[in-house]
């Protein structure tokens, strides 16, 4: 029963099990054979979760950046072109309409959250694709 639980523990779909690192023999200058381990490409659940968590973008930060400087939240999420276009749009809106252009502030704040969410979903897909794992 313990063996069945151990096998079930690592059988999540979409995640491959880590393979042992290959070993190579290297001859040193003194004609001594040395076994060298290459780094292991760990694709276990914990390693993938750490990789995703370390690269995720914060929705709060993206929203705050969009509120302070229009388009900065998009740039933070890697969408530089959209950030520049939004910045120029808001700049033109303020020069034409003046303070009435503040109506865009709540839209920018909410869309900062949405942009970070889209980035994080794409991040998971991209990491799984780079690891040659099927996505759900």
Describe this protein's structure.
- With 136 residues, the chain is mainly α.
- The chain has a domain at 51-136.
- Helix content is 58%, strand content 7%.
- The chain has six helices and two strands, in the order H-E-E-H-H-H-H-H.
- The chain has helices at residues 2-9, 45-55, 59-68, 72-76, 80-97, 104-130; strands at residues 23-27, 33-37.
- The chain has a two-stranded antiparallel sheet with strand order 1-2.
- Strand 1 and strand 2 (33-37) form a beta hairpin.
In brief, what are we looking at here?
This protein has helices at residues 2-9, 45-55, 59-68, 72-76, 80-97, 104-130; strands at residues 23-27, 33-37. It is mainly α.
What is the number of helices?
6
Helical amount among residues, as a percent range? Answer: 55-70%
Report the major sheet.
Answer: 2 strands, antiparallel
Order of helices and strands: HEEHHHHH
Integer average pLDDT: 74
- The global form is elongated
Q: Extract low-pLDDT stretches.
A: 8-12, 34-40
Global structural class: mainly alpha
Approximately what portion of the residues adopt beta-strand conformation? 5-15%
- Main sheet: which strands, in order across? 1-2
Radius of gyration: 24 Å
Distance between the termini: 29 Å
Counting DSSP E segments of at least 2 residues, the number of strands comes to 2
Topology of this structure?
Layout: H1 2-9, E1 23-27, E2 33-37, H2 45-55, H3 59-68, H4 72-76, H5 80-97, H6 104-130
Antiparallel strand pairs: 1-2
Helix pairs in contact: 2-6, 3-6
